[in-house]
Amino acid sequence: MAQLMLIPLLLAALSAQAQDGSPEVQVIAPGKPNGQTPATLVIEPAAMFIVACDADGDGRTSRTELDDCVRRSFAAIDTAKTGALGYIAFADWQTRWLGDQGALPSPFEVDRDGDGKITETELLAQFGKLFSRFDKDGDHAVTRPEALTVRTTAADGRGPVTGRRGGKRDSAPRTGERIPGGKPGQGPYLTNGGVR
C-alpha cells in the first residue's frame, strides 16, 4: 500500500522538474537481447568424455582411467564382439559417448590404416593423443579446468556476437549496440553523439 502512495509523489516530482526547464532525461538501452549470454567457456565433446572417465571421483582423469573407459565404451557398441566398428557403428559410438555423430574425432581421423573400420587400439591411440593435448600441466591427469577452452571473443552458433547486421558481419555497430568491452549500465555504447 505504501508503494502505491509513492507513485503519485514520483509523478508530481517529475512533472515539476519538467516544468522548471530541467534537462530531458535520455535513456540509452543496449541492442536487442540475444536470449542467452554468449559462451566464453566451452568444452569439446572429446574433452567432456575424458573428464567423465574419472572413475574414482577425484576430479582428475588418469590415463589408466581413460583407457578403461574407452574400452568399456567400445565394448558397449561392439555388441557383435568383432573387435572393430564400421563408420556407421562409430557414428553410434559418437552419439552415445560424445553427444553427436558429427563430434570429433571423426572416423577418418581415428581409422589410421584406412580400412573403413575402427578398432579398439585405434580409438585408444586417438584418445591418447587427445589426453596429451588436454593435460596442459603435464601431470599425467586431465582436470575439468584443463578440459575447458576459453574464448577471448564471445560467440554463439553464428560466430562472434559483436558487429552483426541482418545476419552479415559488419565492423560498424549500430546506435545503442554494445561495443566490445561495454556492459549494460556502463559504457561504452554507441549513441548518435558518438561513443558513450
From TrEMBL:
InterPro entries for this protein: EF-hand-dom_pair (IPR011992), EF_Hand_1_Ca_BS (IPR018247), EF_hand_dom (IPR002048)
Protein source organism: Sphingomonas gellani
Keyword Repeat among record annotations: no
Keywords: Signal
Residue stretches of biased makeup (Basic and acidic residues): 168-177
GO molecular function: calcium ion binding
Signal peptide from the UniProt entry: 1-18
Positions of the UniProt region annotated as Disordered: 145-196
The EF-hand domain, residue ranges: 109-133
Name assigned to this protein: EF hand
